[in-house]
Write a structure and sequence with these properties.
alpha/beta; Rossmann fold; 7-stranded mixed sheet; 4-stranded parallel sheet; 15 strands
C-alpha cells in the first residue's frame, strides 16, 4: 500500500509540473536567490535588467521599444548589452534579471552560473534553460501560414524552412501547418532544416530540391526573415519568383516591402513590441517576488519552460500601412527614450557624487564644531531643519499638484483591465467645391473614407499623453504671451 501511495504521489507531481507548480517555480526563482544572504548592501538593492538582443534582428527596435517604454514608467534601469559586451564575463555583474533574444552562449552560461533568471524573447535558447519565454503562438503561426496558401494552391507541394530541426517552436509550427493543409488531400508538406547559424545550407538544400522537383513546389514558407530573404533571392535567380508563392513567419520592414511590391503573399506579425512589454512585466514581477501569468509550458532540450504566448496576425497588402508606420515611429521613439535614459543616468551619477561630497564636508564640519557650546549647536540644527523641511514640503506639494492636474485633465481615456488591443474606426468625409472666377459654384464632389486602425493600448495611452503635453505647452506659451502683453501695457501706463 505504501508503495502504491508513493507512485500515485509521483504521478500527480509530474502532472502539475506544467500547471501550478510551473507558476510557483518561476515566481519563486528570484526569491530563493535573495534568501541566501541575510544582509544586503545599497548596491544589491539596485534593480538592473540586462537585455541582450541580436544586432542583426530586423525587429530589434520593436523589442527594445516595448522594454524601454515600460522601464521609463518604473524605477528600473535597463542595461542593453552589445555583442562585444555579451562576451565579457563582467557584463552581468549588477544585473538581477536577463532578457535575451538569441544571445551569445558565453552570456547565457554566465547568467546560469550566477543564478540570474533568464527570460527569452521570441525563441527558446539552446543549451541553456530559460526560466520563461515570451513568444508568438507557434500553432497559430502555422495555421495562419496555411490559410494564406489554401485559397491559392489546389495541388502540389508546400516547403517549410524550419531552421533547426530540434527547435521545439519550429516543430509546433510545422505540425500546425501540416494539420491545417491536410484539409486538401492534394497538398503535401516537405520540411528543410539546418544547423545553428547555417541558413545558407538550408537554401542550398532548397535549390537542389527545386531542381529535382521542377514545377512540383507551389509555395514556400519560412520561419524567419533570414531564411525568407535568402529564399526570395534564390527564387529570383531561378526565375521562379512569379510562380512560387512565398509566405513568411516573422514580419519585418523588408518583408513588408516585398508584400507591397507583390513578390510575397503574406507574413506573420509576431508582435515584437508586445513581446518586449510582456518580458519587462515578467521581470518586474520576478524582482518583486510576484506570480507571473503563464499561458502554458514549452518542452525544450532542457525540460519544461514556462511560456506566455502572444497572439499573432497575418500581414497582407490590406493592412501593411499601419505596421509600416509603427516601424518608423519605433525608431524615432526609441532614440528619444535612450537619450532620456542616458541623461537620467548621468544625473544620478552626479547626485551620488554630490551626496558623497556633501556627506564628507558635513562630517568634517561636525568634527570641527564638536567642541562648541550645546546651545549654539542645537539652535543651528533647529533652524536648518525647519528651513529645509519647509522648503522641501513646498516643492513636493507643487510637484504633486502639477502631476495630478495633468493626469486628471479632461480627454484622458481610461482603458479597461484585460484589453489586449484597441480598434478605432475612423470615418472621413470630404466635400470639394469647384468655383469659377466670380466664386460661383460650378460643381460639388463628395467622397468618404472608412479606415480601421488596430493598435496596442500602450501606444494609445502614449499618443494621448503626447497630445496632452502639446496642449499644456500651447497653454503655457499663450500665458507667457499674455503676461508679456500685460507687462508691456503696464509699462506704457507707468511711463
Amino acid at each position: 500500500m505504501k508503495k502504491m501511495l508513493s507512485l500515485v504521489l509521483v504521478f500527480f507531481l509530474s502532472i502539475t509540473l506544467t500547471g501550478c507548480n510551473m507558476q510557483n517555480l518561476l515566481g519563486g526563482l528570484l526569491g530563493s536567490r535573495e534568501k541566501t544572504t541575510s544582509k544586503s548592501s545599497p548596491q544589491d538593492d539596485k534593480k538592473i535588467i540586462a537585455v541582450a538582443i541580436d544586432d542583426e534582428n530586423p525587429n530589434k527596435d520593436m523589442f527594445l521599444l516595448g522594454i524601454r517604454e515600460m522601464a521609463a514608467k518604473e524605477e528600473l534601469e535597463i542595461k542593453v548589452l552589445s555583442k562585444e559586451e555579451q562576451m565579457d564575463t563582467e557584463a552581468l555583474k549588477e544585473a538581477k534579471v536577463l532578457i535575451v533574444q538569441d544571445g551569445e552562449q558565453a552570456l547565457l552560461k554566465g547568467a546560469e552560473k550566477e543564478k540570474i533568471p533568464i527570460i527569452a524573447l521570441n525563441e527558446l535558447p539552446s543549451g541553456i534553460k530559460a526560466q520563461g519565454v515570451i513568444l508568438p503562438d507557434p500553432e497559430q503561426v502555422g495555421k495562419l501560414m496555411a490559410q494564406q496558401i489554401l485559397p491559392k494552391v489546389s495541388a502540389g507541394e508546400v516547403v517549410f524552412l524550419m531552421g533547426e530541426a530540434d527547435n521545439p517552436v519550429s516543430q509546433l509550427i510545422l505540425s500546425s501547418l501540416k494539420r491545417e493543409l491536410s484539409s486538401n488531400g492534394q497538398l503535401t508538406v516537405h520540411s528543410i532544416s539546418n544547423p545553428p547559424e547555417s541558413e545558407s545550407l538550408a537554401i542550398q538544400t532548397l535549390a537542389e530540391h527545386l531542381q529535382k522537383n521542377a514545377g512540383k513546389v507551389k509555395a514556400i514558407c519560412a520561419k524567419n526573415e533570414k531564411l525568407l530573404s535568402q529564399t526570395y533571392d534564390l527564387l529570383k535567380s531561378m526565375k521562379l519568383s512569379e510562380t512560387v508563392y512565398l509566405v513568411g513567419g516573422e514580419a519585418t520592414p523588408n518583408s513588408l516591402q516585398r508584400i507591397a511590391s507583390g513578390s510575397q503573399v503574406a507574413d506573420i506579425d509576431t508582435a515584437p513590441y508586445i513581446q518586449g512589454i510582456n518580458a519587462f512585466q515578467w521581470d518586474q514581477k520576478l524582482l518583486n517576488k510576484e506570480a507571473v501569468d503563464i499561458t502554458q509550458s514549452i518542452t525544450s532540450d532542457q525540460g519544461e519552460v514556462a511560456a506566455k504566448l502572444i497572439p499573432a496576425k497575418t500581414v497582407t497588402t490590406e493592412n501593411i500601412a499601419l505596421l509600416q508606420k509603427s516601424y518608423t515611429q519605433a525608431a524615432t521613439t526609441l532614440k528619444e527614450l535612450e537619450k532620456k535614459a542616458e541623461s537620467q543616468a548621468k544625473d544620478s551619477q552626479g547626485q551620488e557624487k554630490g551626496k558623497s561630497s556633501s556627506d564628507q564636508e558635513g562630517k568634517e564640519q561636525g568634527e570641527e564644531k564638536s567642541g562648541q557650546g550645546n546651545g549654539e549647536s542645537k539652535g543651528q540644527g533647529k533652524g536648518q531643519s525647519d528651513g529645509q523641511g519647509s522648503s522641501q514640503g513646498s516643492e513636493q506639494g507643487d510637484g504633486q499638484g502639477d502631476d495630478q492636474g495633468s493626469g486628471q485633465s479632461g480627454g484622458q481615456m481610461v482603458i479597461p483591465e484585460g484589453v489586449a488591443k484597441v480598434t478605432e474606426k475612423i470615418h472621413t468625409e470630404i466635400t470639394r467645391e469647384y468655383l469659377d472666377e466670380n466664386g460661383k459654384i460650378l460643381g460639388t464632389e463628395k467622397s468618404a473614407n472608412d479606415q480601421v486602425r488596430t493598435i496596442p493600448p500602450e501606444m494609445l495611452l502614449k499618443e494621448q499623453q503626447q497630445q496632452q503635453q502639446k496642449q499644456q505647452q500651447k497653454e503655457g506659451q499663450e500665458q507667457q504671451e499674455e503676461g508679456k502683453e500685460k507687462a508691456s501695457g503696464e509699462g506704457g501706463e507707468n511711463a
